[in-house]
Amino acid sequence: MKKFMLLSVFALFTAWVLVQSAGGKGPLVPVFRITAEPDVLVKGSQGAALTVDVSFGDSEIREWVAGLSEPYPLLFVDPDWLGRSPDIVELIVEKNIPVGLLGAEGERYEKDPKLLDEGIRSFESHFGRKPLYFRTADEQFPDELKKRLFEQEINALGSTRRWEGGKIPKEKSGEILSVPHHREHRISAEEIGRLQASRKFMTIEDVLFGMEVRQKSIP
């Protein structure tokens, strides 16, 4: 068993491949499949990571994105919102802010298997690559969806807890916080900034792996 675990860890680290980011410019980004079988990641090993689900917003989100500094939060972006926000997409690419694909409610993927492919194609059209991470709008992942994501080498990422504004939660080691920013249900950029100021957030890879991830630039 010990030998198997060591081999699994070795395989995980050797699964890292570098691909060029959107548009053939800028830094390289890692591609990897974290889990050994179809599963949903909801917690890491250290620190805290911030993720923001975005399906609505223009000027407020543009200003917030423009003001972000490293380590960046992971943005889960809705395909329709991407099509409505080319200038913000350009800014995200320019700053090399990590992005994942935000999907619909989990049960919709049981009724419409093509929905995932459509979302991936939309993401690729804007960023030139498949997403590394995927999250459904309600963080529900049917078994068949988890299987298809695993086959596509896309990581299903939920969260340790969703923050709905108000009182800042106490920090828990390895937590992945998610914050919604939708038309009907959204936390303002000002409130997200207040959460960001409450603790030292880390990249999602730092939280998941407990190691530093460095990205190389193309000469």
TrEMBL record:
Protein's recorded name: Polysaccharide deacetylase
